Amino acid sequence: MQDKNFDKLAQKFAKNIYGTPKGEIRAAVLWRDLAPALAQFGDKKLRILDAGGGFGYFSQKLARLGHEVVLCDISAEMLAQAKTQIDASDTPLAIRLVHAPIQALSVAEHGKFDLILCHAVVEWLADAKTTMEGLLTMLKPNGLFSLMFYNKEAMRFHALVSGNFDYVAADLKVKKKVRLTPTHPLYIHDVKQWFAEWNMDLLRKSGVRVIHDYLKKHQPADFDYQKLLTMELEYSQREPYISLGRYVHFLGQSAATDTSA
């Protein structure tokens, strides 16, 4: 099995990520979780790794705050989009682009980081846990790890409320995959167990799109997406809504002592 490369779908994928209301929700929830955790570092210039970061939405946002970012992606097309946007920035952005699978990243080549982002990547990986463990060797003591993953239980529930019962009975497997449907969705309890095994303190746990993906097709004429965003932020950290999020965001912090040596 191979990990997903989005070269042929780069434009469509990038548009689906942040060019829609669901993308705005995703960005808002993630930043709501990240901002207070970053504040603990004060004015320190951070080293940040955006692993599988595509065109680097958060890489650019963090670089504008003065941080130093390494943006890695397996897709040359995604990185080309990133370069175009970085070059067009009004202010210089300290972002280094690395064209490689994230499994190829190493401390020897890139050093250690205060923050590692890995958003909407693990659900495309043939061996997600091992890959994440490799990334975590690059995290400094007291470093932050931001992991957003596609939630298999929400995938099931969405299929149920859509009446796709045969799909559910087949354990969410189909003969022909939809190109943008993740191949390896994860269960929340499995990822939570990973964090425990990694001795990582779980600072934040949020659902991403806990409402949007369950909205009825026909909305009132005065439907307000800004109010939807407000509700998403309000309910994204409450159960049972967290467990219904199409994605789930875990923000962890490593131990104060480096145990990787």
UniProtKB/TrEMBL annotation:
Binding site for S-adenosyl-L-methionine: R26, G52, G53, D73, H119
Span of domain Methyltransferase type: 49-146
Keywords tagged on the record: Methyltransferase, S-adenosyl-L-methionine, Transferase, tRNA processing
Catalytic activity: 5-carboxymethoxyuridine(34) in tRNA + S-adenosyl-L-methionine = 5-methoxycarbonylmethoxyuridine(34) in tRNA + S-adenosyl-L-homocysteine
GO molecular function annotations of the record: methyltransferase activity
Lineage: superkingdom: Bacteria
SUPFAM superfamilies named in the record: S-adenosyl-L-methionine-dependent methyltransferases (SSF53335)
GO biological process: methylation
EC id: 2.1.1.-
InterPro entries noted in UniProt: Cmo5U_methylTrfase, Methyltransf_11, SAM-dependent_MTases_sf
Function: Catalyzes the methylation of 5-carboxymethoxyuridine (cmo5U) to form 5-methoxycarbonylmethoxyuridine (mcmo5U) at position 34 in tRNAs.
Similarity section: Belongs to the class I-like SAM-binding methyltransferase superfamily. CmoM family.
UniProt name for this protein: tRNA 5-carboxymethoxyuridine methyltransferase
